[in-house]
Amino acid sequence: MNVVRIQSWLSGLWAGLLLAVGGLAAPALFMSLDRAAAGVGAGRIFHLESRVSMALAVLIFLLERRRVRDRIDEGANESALSTTIILVLAALFLTVVGGFVLQPLIQAAKAGQATPLSFAALHGLSAALYWVKTALVMSLAWRLTAR
After folding, report:
1. DSSP reduced 3-state for 80
2. How does pLDDT run across 83-113, given as a tens digit for each residue?
3. Nearest-5° Cα angle at 143, 91 to 96
4. What is the rounded CA–CA span in Å between residue 109 and residue 102?
5. Which residues lie below 8 Å from residue 54, measured CB to CB, with a gap of 6+?
6. Contact 19, 11 (CB under 8 A)
7. Model pTM greater than 0.90?
8. How far from each other are the two terminal CA atoms of the chain, in whole angstroms?
9. How far apart are CA 19 and CA 135, in angstroms?
10. How far apart are CA 14 and CA 51, in angstroms?
11. How many CB atoms sit inside 10 A of residue 31's CB?
12. Helix ranges, 1-147 (H)
């Protein structure tokens, strides 16, 4: 099977996951549960999403490295730093920042501990980074399917 086809499928799956979690699952929790329970549920869903996002980013990255290496071995004059690599690394960076930097700060702010920003500011920043990541992954899927 063609590496680009696998990357296209994985990036489409990733984009769908991000849209489903951020656009459907989390809002549905807040529409049907009290705020505290919805926050706990959304936190768990986003925690799982960050793990899946990391796995998909690493897998797509490794596939792209293989694709580029194979093209260079065939004699192509291709840069190792492709647009696909940049999009994947940017999305991975935002996943790490959102899931492993901001989420612990959000939990600390919720618990009343001192944090550099308020709960609302941290939550807003986290949401903004999530939707930027979603746009990057959607761009990645679009780009890969165009090949």
Report:
1. coil
2. 999 999 999 999 999 999 999 999 999 999 9
3. 5
4. 10
5. 92, 95, 96, 99
6. no
7. yes
8. 15
9. 10
10. 12
11. 8
12. 3-20, 26-32, 35-73, 83-96, 103-110, 119-145
